[in-house]
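Re: the 341-residue chain
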Amino acid sequence: MAITNEKGGLQANKTVLRIFLDIVLFFFVALPALYMFVYARPTERGFFCDDNSISYPYKPDTISTSMLIAINFVISIIVIVLVEILNCIDTKCRQACLTTEGFIFCLKSYSIFLLGLVIQLLIVEVTKAMMGTLRPNFLDVCRPVYNASLCPGYISEYTCTGSYSDEIRSSRQSFPSGHSSFSMYFAVYLCIHLQIRSKFTFSTTLRFILQMSLIFMSLLCGFGRIVDNKHHPGDVIVGFIVGSAVAVAVYMMVGRDVLKTSSYSSNDTLPVYKCCNNQCSDTCEQTQEPQTPSPLLDNDFMNNVSIIQSNSNSTFLKDTPFYVRRHCSTPITPSTRKCDI
């Protein structure tokens, strides 16, 4: 008993240490990503004064960054809860996130989801700061003062005098689109979660419709950034690619192995109570399968008949549709009754 308690305590300590280390590593990635998002100064690049691609008028955001974060977090929680409800509706005996195992599965999945989110944010913000790509509304936001005699050449020295002072730093962070990457990461990861977690069978298209709805909303978010003159089309496309790639990579490299440590893997069905005679219980007594009936004639007799027929030189009925060789000694096994699960 003492040895068992010692092993249990050691295992608990290892679990606590592993969780603590994962939290430390999470903040090790999250804090730099947050700093880059708030304070990073992008590279100050010059421009051609006759560049029409950066001369679009300034428009307010249709979907602001704070709104995007709030909407996506709310949608992610709704999707996870909805999947569990649909799994529960599928059969009255099914147990979903109400059980400890199901709750642990959902908690692990969401923690991996947050890890990939900060990784995606770090990649996007570092790229934005290094590239310093000018947004389509840069000239309207910055209102640069420069030596006009250099036109139509390249302007490298200028001073921004625009009234949108809060937008000047952001006007140099066009590539890649953070909104597109952020929304596509949410959509792709939730699509993966739907694929591996949803086990309802009452509809063959519901899961697909939910997945396509997530992708469609992400596409609308990215295209809206082009309409708002915040990003070039190439910025949005690369943002979609970054978000999708990070979501797939996080699941393939981390999520697939971590989620296997749950009491059931993604390929298994959800834990259920077994139902027999319209009653749910932890156990299900299998009905005894009936014995296979013995053949009416001995197998030896039928084998002898087959040998005689094969050795016979008679061609009677051989070329007619009635000449069919059958295994007369094969018994018919009646169907067995199994419990519904």
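The radius of gyration is 33 Å.
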